[in-house]
Design a protein that fits this description.
Elements (H helix, E strand, L loop, with lengths): L1 E7 L2 H11 L6 E7 L1 H10 L4 E5 L6 H12 L4 E6 L16 E4 L4 H13 L7 H8 L10 H9 L6 H8 L3 H11 L13 H23 L7 H24 L6 H9 L3 H9 L1 H12 L5 H8 L5 H11 L4 H8 L12 H16 L5 H12 L8 H17 L1
Parallel strand pairs: 1-2, 1-3, 3-4, 4-5
Helix pairs in contact: 2-3, 6-7, 6-9, 7-9, 8-9, 10-11, 10-12, 10-17, 10-19, 11-16, 11-17, 12-13, 12-15, 13-14, 15-16, 16-17, 17-18, 17-19
Length: 400
């Protein structure tokens, strides 16, 4: 049984939702509420799996409703009902909504949103940790993305590919851009993993609105002080990881997916470090002193899950392509076959980046691990070129 609460000012929209979802009865129970105050009363008195709110409610009431839902009922899936895709995007909801639906949604889109959210629970068994992830509206964001975007726009004949290049170095912003483009609000026939395609679909004005909203709502400076340096390091490492994964898959149909999955591979660590800083500080202590790997320390501290599962759960909840979700969840798993696949490419890229950035005395061990991983895969011919890409990235970071 799925319980849905739909909140809007417009009685015609409420009726349309009830009529559209009628074929799902009795598996779905649909309750409607006119106005945010009535919606909050329902949330306070009954349990719901989802809350849908209209983007155009008076005086920002919809945003307030979802914000309250996130704080008081983090397990509830939060969806915004918005207008047509050529309208101004509901930027106020970028932090509070999990997904978007057009007001003219289909039954299929509604069912898929619920099925995906329920299926993701297999990644995270612990309800308390799931609530922490569900309540996340943003990831910590470096606050120079907007400035770099505007600098590109001020150039004569600036190309959309240059705007995409800005996102290629901003994993937290890239994740939110892909969340928005892959929502049913856009009504695309297939999921999008390419940031170049995402930028072309959004257009300049929507991209500017989205990036500015993200930066204003969540900067790295708002993360707890001990975690800021770590999160900054993760964001820089994500850029190197993505470049190496792209080199490994160069010339294949998997190149875009591999780049994006690698860019987002460590978003779970960003989330845990910013949302659970005390626990994560201990994780870092345990891994820094050599007692165990970062993933092993996370597994011990967070109820048997690591940043890989946390990141996959969050990106899946946000509606990103399953190929990306799968690769993020498996990016520390040794490839088991010779197929060209995104999880294997990201896992090997992660190993190569760890190899080139390790202290000199440890690089031999890391290189042996990389060679062991790649020996049984089709990526072997690309390993040395990928190492060159990783070294170039690492040297640039060291010189910065």
């Amino acid at each position: 049984m799925t319980r849905l609460l739909v909140v809007a000012d417009d009685t015609e929209l409420l009726k349309r939702c009830t009529d559209t979802l009628a074929p799902l009865t009795p598996k779905w129970t649909v309750i409607t509420a006119q106005g945010a105050a009535t919606g909050l009363q329902h949330l306070g008195s009954e349990n719901y799996d989802m809350v849908w709110t209209a983007a155009d409610m008076a005086q920002g009431a919809g945003e307030g409703l979802l914000s309250t839902t996130r704080e008081q009922h983090p397990d509830v899936l939060r969806i915004v009902l918005a207008g047509q895709i050529n309208d101004k995007p509901p930027a106020a909801f970028f932090e509070t909504a999990h997904q978007w639906l057009p007001k003219t949604f289909t039954v299929r889109a509604a069912v898929e949103a619920v099925a995906r959210a329920k299926g993701l629970k297999a990644f995270i068994d612990d309800p308390a940790l799931r609530r922490v992830i569900n309540s996340a509206g943003q990831l910590p964001v470096a606050t120079n993305t907007w400035a770099r975007l505007m600098a590109h726009l001020q150039k004569p004949n600036s190309a959309l590919s240059e705007l995409a290049d800005v996102l290629h170095e901003a994993p937290a912003v890239a994740a939110k851009v892909l969340q928005f483009v892959n929502s049913a609000y856009f009504g695309l026939p297939s999921k999008v993993s390419s940031l170049n395609l995402a930028v072309s679909l959004l257009g300049v004005e929507q991209l500017k609105s989205l990036v500015l909203s993200i930066e204003l709502s969540q900067g790295i400076g708002e993360a707890p002080r001990p975690m800021r340096a770590f999160i900054n390091t993760l964001q820089r490492r994500a850029v190197g990881l993505a470049r190496v994964a792209r080199q490994l898959t160069r010339g294949t149909v998997s190149a875009d997916d591999a780049f994006t999955a690698a860019l987002l591979a460590d978003v779970g660590s960003m989330l845990l470090a910013s949302r659970l800083p005390t626990q994560y500080l201990e994780v870092l202590r345990m891994s820094d002193d050599g007692r165990q790997s970062l993933s092993s320390a996370e597994f011990e501290a967070f109820a048997g899950v690591t940043h890989a599962q946390v990141g996959a759960y969050l990106l899946g909840l946000w509606g990103l392509p399953l190929s990306i979700v799968e690769a993020v969840s498996q990016h520390h798993v040794t490839p088991a076959d010779r197929q060209v696949n995104v999880p294997a490419a990201v896992a090997i890229a992660d190993s190569i980046v760890s190899e080139v950035s390790a202290p000199e005395a440890q690089r031999g061990r890391h290189r042996a691990e990389t060679d062991n991983m790649t020996g049984k895969t089709v990526f072997l011919p690309q390993v040395e070129p990928a190492r060159d890409v990783a070294r170039q990235w690492y040297e640039a970071q060291a010189a910065a």
